[in-house]
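[Automated response] Your request has been received and processed.

Submitted sequence:
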Amino acid sequence: TFYTSDSTVSGHPFRLSGTANGSHNAFYSVDFDGTGDYLTIPDSSDWDYGTGDFTVECWVMMTGGSGNRELFSRVGSGQFQFSVDGNNFPRLYHDGSNNFTTTEALQTNVWTHLAAVREDGVFTFYIDGIENISDSFTSNLDGSHGFGVAATEAGGQQFTGKISDLRVVKGTAVYTSNFQPPSVPLTNITNTKLLCCNQSTTT
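Generated structure:
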């Protein structure tokens, strides 16, 4: 379900654009303007990671905004906020005891690859394929709420910028060490539950 309160786009909530890097000409992204553009995904067992492995990754280009801004987020039970904090640091927030904030801030108008990975109870956050933080994370992430892309499910804490190739993989740690960020669009690998923001059309 797409929502927009931005009348300037004539009822079309998202504008598609290629990534900035010339080697990524096959990529597309969704441009979220921070004033009503976001995507919601209903509750599903696909989002119940339990205590198991998972990978959430995407390319992002932050173009503005302030405060906490969500990339892929569920609040309430099973809280899971893959987001950017008020100082532009990417983070994964579960609760007060499990708040993993990176040490490298996003730069405005620069494409950055982010990957949040849990393997065997250890969480690692990669920025452009380089491990930034790693720590124990064994919390149960089963929940009863849907997810929002570029905002909470209810439309709060909206992200301003572009998101490309958002992929959610349940049950697999796709990255287990430093890696070269993908230079071609991502595909549906085993255990992929969501792959979005990477097409030239909207559905």
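Summary generated for your ticket: Residues 1-25 have pLDDT under 50 and may be disordered. The two ends are 9 Å apart (CA to CA).
If you did not submit this request, please reply to this message.
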